[in-house]
Write a structure and sequence with these properties.
By secondary structure, this protein is α/β, with parallel strands linked by helices. The chain contains 8 helices and 18 strands.
Length: 432
């Protein structure tokens, strides 16, 4: 039976209503309304999300609503409206993946909160790779030999510093995924998770989150992280070339600013997982992650296009401008064209853009476990971004993506690769 667009819309919304995550800060809900009544679809201060549709003229504002012929019920997704008094003219709102609550939250591109958390809210949580318990850490304090001694930091072992992004924390997302993967390695690794969630999740009085404050704070997080690295080097516990900073989303720019603020030499490596685009697109190299920030910088792009949630455009909001599109590292990898990742769909217990954005560090975490060399992600060199988007690359080089990407690959290249839609994601045959 051929599905109409209205029927398909109903199925999508009903699927959303059954997701095991909630839309947080503020929450959204699915409204079921009898077609025989005049009851308002959404409650006071809520709107139909999204309200503008680009599918057809029938689904524009004021057009047809989702309807089930079998039970005379309408379905719609209702999301809260930002109180007008809380927004200044010209401020932009958009929805962004929230890793902590596994949903989406509303963000304000430019907000001026009454108070902003200070630098004392940035913490460094130390783990060894033989312990993946997220609550079993020691806090390292820059300049404190006591905390360094208590931590049992492994001298001269590789140091991995992991920095979370917007609406995230060191207990979910990349920090947890990478710690779990590094715990499988047969040799010692020092792991530090940077906790800056007070700045990355600054909530306004209207229960929205200040993106601009988080974006501006990436420089401060980078500076404080650089100071910690210099302290560890001065105590002869680490060498600068053996330090690897990994960051997701806004955390990728934190990693870049870490390299920029170092005064004792260049970091050995920086890895950026789908670096955030808003406020970092078309800016000087000094204002975002760049290949000059470390001896080797590799980037994994997985959500580079404006996201149209379920094919729809939001009500005057920025439609999910998630990851940077242009290459900024020595090696820039674009799995599955760098946009929508296979296996990320509305049938999954998360929204597609959150899934694609997160795949950048999930692929990397899987690559860590391939230390025996039996499997790996292989990227083919692309000479232009047009080749990346076509998935047809004419370059001569192939290179592994992930933990074991060769550091001598510093000629600034782009690479395309395909992945499986489910774990394990690595495909042995590039042409399969």
């Amino acid at each position: 039976m051929k599905l109409t667009k209205t029927t398909l819309l109903i199925q999508i919304i009903v699927t959303i209503s059954n997701f095991p995550f909630s839309f947080q800060t503020p929450h959204c809900y699915v409204s079921k309304v009898s077609t025989r009544s005049n009851e308002t679809l959404c409650g006071s201060n809520y709107f139909i999300f999204p309200e503008n549709w680009d599918e057809s003229e029938d689904t524009r504002v004021g057009g047809s609503r989702g309807h089930s012929e079998t039970n005379d019920v309408d379905f719609t997704l209702c999301c809260p409206v930002m109180p007008p008094a809380k927004i200044k003219d010209g401020d932009q709102n958009f929805w962004w993946p929230n890793e902590i609550h596994r949903g989406i939250s509303r963000a304000i591109l430019n907000c001026n909160p009454a108070s902003i958390p200070g630098i004392e809210t940035i913490r460094f949580l130390y783990y060894t790779n033989n312990n993946d318990d997220p609550d079993d850490f020691t806090e390292l304090i820059t300049g404190s030999r006591k905390t360094l001694r208590v931590s049992r930091f492994v001298k001269d072992a590789p140091l991995k510093i992991i920095i979370h992004g917007f609406m995230s924390s060191p207990f979910v997302g990349p920090a947890r995924a990478l710690r779990n993967a590094y715990s499988q390695l047969p040799y010692a690794i020092n792991i530090i998770a940077v906790q800056w969630e007070a700045l990355a999740n600054l909530v306004t009085a209207s229960d929205s989150i200040c993106y601009n404050i988080a974006a501006q704070s990436t420089k401060l997080v980078g500076k404080r992280t650089a100071e910690l690295i210099e302290f560890l080097v001065s105590e002869k516990m680490a060498t600068i070339s053996n330090v690897h900073v990994l960051g997701h989303s806004l955390g990728a720019h934190c990693a870049g600013f870490t390299g920029k603020h170092l005064t004792i030499g260049k970091l050995g490596r920086i890895t950026g997982f789908d670096p955030a685009r808003p406020n970092f697109d078309k800016v000087p190299d000094s204002e975002r992650i760049h290949h000059t920030d470390a001896q080797f910088v590799d980037i994994i792009h997985t959500a580079t296009k404006d996201w149209r949630l379920l094919g729809m455009v939001t009500l005057g909001f920025i439609p999910f401008p998630v990851g940077l599109r242009e290459p900024v590292g020595h090696a820039d990898f674009y799995p599955n064209y760098g946009s929508h990742q296979p296996g990320c769909s509305v049938a999954k217990p998360t929204i597609p853009v959150l899934c694609s954005h997160a795949r950048s560090y999930i692929y990397y975490a899987e690559s860590i476990t391939y230390f025996d060399g039996f499997n790996e992600f292989i990227g083919r060199e692309c000479l232009t971004h047009t080749e990346v988007e076509a998935g047809s690359c004419s370059g001569n080089f192939s290179v592994a993506m992930g933990e074991y990407t060769p550091r001598n690959n510093q000629t600034r290249r782009m690479y395309f690769l395909l992945t499986n839609k489910n774990s394990p994601y690595a495909i042995l045959d590039l042409n399969s």
